[in-house]
Design goal:
mainly beta, two-stranded antiparallel ribbon, 1 helix
Length: 71
């Protein structure tokens, strides 16, 4: 999965939106959302022109993988 990221207009820092996708950014009508920004605590409205995709590490554990080991 990939996460949709935007740039905080207050700090200029890139932040994840929490919205995940399998590979494409959502259609325009789904992209105009108001979010609380983890970088500054403010609320920002963003749309598809402000967004890009970032890779995220899965929280899933390999429960059935007999070759996996805890380090």
């Amino acid at each position: 999965m990939r996460e949709i990221a935007i740039r905080c207009p207050g700090t200029g820092l890139p932040v994840g939106t929490g919205e995940k996708t399998a590979g494409k950014i959502a259609p325009r009508e789904l992209m105009s959302l108001l979010r609380v920004c983890p970088a500054c605590g403010g609320s920002h409205k963003w749309d598809h022109r402000d967004a890009w995709l970032i890779d995220v590490v899965s929280d899933d554990t390999p429960d059935d993988d007999s070759d996996s080991e805890l380090l």
